[in-house]
Amino acid sequence: MKKGELLYEGKGKKLYKTDDENLLIAEFKDDLTAFNAQKRGSEAGKGALNNKISTQIFRLLKEHGIQTHLVDTISETEQVIKKVDIIPLEVVVRNIATGSLTKRLGIVEGTILPLTLVEFYYKNDDLNDPLVNDEHCIVMNLVKSEKDLQILRHLGREINSILFKFFEEKGLKLVDFKVEFGVDKDGNIILADEISPDSCRFWDAKTNEKLDKDRFRQGIGEVKVAYEEVLRRILS
């Protein structure tokens, strides 16, 4: 497959056209960003780790019936993916209180939530990706209908159910995660983007050591070591 011109560059990936109009090549970057890119850095090898981790997770989800945009992994840092129209919502799924949830609502960090909380955030850097409710999504035409929001919630919870159990068996707490979805050429809503320590919070089940991008956000350090540990456990 021929790699064509650069179509889009985001915080964590570059997307390239291919000689198939329905397929793209996604290249994972070593860049690290936090707080809507106000904090920036880089970690050599991070892109390759995220590629491997996301590939394994997407394959696991496919085995459980979740449709994704992943077609194949073709190099250390590259995937062939289906071209989709991205729904401009970040679907955040929470099991344990931390981050913005504790700041907004005062829930003590580490509190196990009594239910799987699903939140929507409008993907807009200029507005700092604000939290939105169902009515906002409809008024702003972020989705076609309320049914789409129901599908996104269902998929978020279904993915959480699969991954929570999987990571629990690997000695990791899946604290929360962000996923994105897109509409494929047949009109199906499918999982897109990535699932990695850039987009998830993983805590060690025994020590609560953070093994995700919070190590960069909070200046803890050893980001690559943490990502390598997540990959090791996934493959174990």
How would you describe what is shown here?
With 236 residues, the chain is α+β, with helices and mostly antiparallel strands. It has two domains: 3-82, Phosphorylase Kinase, domain 1 (2-Layer Sandwich); 85-222, ATP-grasp fold, B domain (D-amino Acid Aminotransferase, Chain A, domain 1, 2-Layer Sandwich), CATH 3.30.470.20. Helices cover 30% and strands 34% of the residues. The chain has six helices and 14 strands. It has helices spanning 46-63, 100-105, 134-139, 146-169, 214-217, 223-235; strands spanning 3-9, 13-18, 23-28, 31-34, 39-42, 70-73, 78-82, 85-86, 89-96, 112-122, 131-132, 172-183, 189-192, 200-204. A hairpin with a 4-residue loop joins strand 2 and strand 3. Helix 1 runs parallel beside helix 6 (223-235). The longest helix has 24 residues, at 146-169. The model has no long low-confidence stretch (mean pLDDT 97). It comes from Campylobacter gastrosuis. This is Phosphoribosylaminoimidazole-succinocarboxamide synthase. Its EC number is 6.3.2.6.
Summarize the structure.
30% of the residues lie in helices and 34% in strands. The protein has helices spanning 46-63, 100-105, 134-139, 146-169, 214-217, 223-235, and strands spanning 3-9, 13-18, 23-28, 31-34, 39-42, 70-73, 78-82, 85-86, 89-96, 112-122, 131-132, 172-183, 189-192, 200-204.
What is the CA–CA distance across the termini? 32 Å
Question: Are there runs of 5+ residues with pLDDT below 50, and where?
Answer: none
Helix count equals: 6
- Quick one: overall form? globular
CATH architecture of the largest domain: 2-Layer Sandwich
Mean pLDDT: 97
Percent strand equals 25-35%
Helix content: 25-40%
Largest sheet: 7 strands, antiparallel
> Would you identify the CATH H-level superfamily of the largest domain?
ATP-grasp fold, B domain
CATH class membership of the largest domain: Alpha Beta
